[in-house]
Amino acid sequence: MQESPDNPDDNKLSPCVFQCRLETIDNTELCIACGRTRSEIVNWSEFDQVQRDIVFKLSNERML
């Protein structure tokens, strides 16, 4: 996990590993490096901490 690339000064962690590569898997466009959907990546800076925690959980599950 890295500091958020959207705003490095906000000290919020992101699942981003700075190796973005989107592929369509099961009809969903996912980053194969971090496991987030395109929508989750685009909207990350707008998410509150609860939403971010959910995305962290989902992205970790997708990477298994």
Q: If you had to describe this structure to a student in words, what would you say it looks like?
A:
- It is built from two helices and four strands, in the order ββββαα.
- With 64 residues, the protein is an alpha+beta fold.
- A hairpin with a 2-residue loop joins strand 3 and strand 4.
- The longest helix has 14 residues, at 49-62.
- The two termini are 16 Å apart.
* SS-based class: alpha+beta
Shape: globular
Mean residue pLDDT: 85
Number of helices: 2
The largest pleated sheet is described as:
2 strands, antiparallel
User: Unreliable runs, pLDDT <50, ≥5 residues?
Assistant: none
- Distance between the ends: 16 Å
H/E element sequence: EEEEHH
Helix proportion: 25-40%
The largest sheet has its strands arranged as 1-2
- How many β strands by DSSP? 4
Query: How much β-strand is present in the residues?
Result: 15-25%
CA gyration radius, whole angstroms? 11 Å
Structure described in brief:
The chain has helices at 38-43, 49-62, and strands at residues 2-3, 13-14, 22-25, 28-31.
SSE layout and pairing:
Layout: E1 2-3, E2 13-14, E3 22-25, E4 28-31, H1 38-43, H2 49-62
Antiparallel strand pairs: 1-2, 3-4
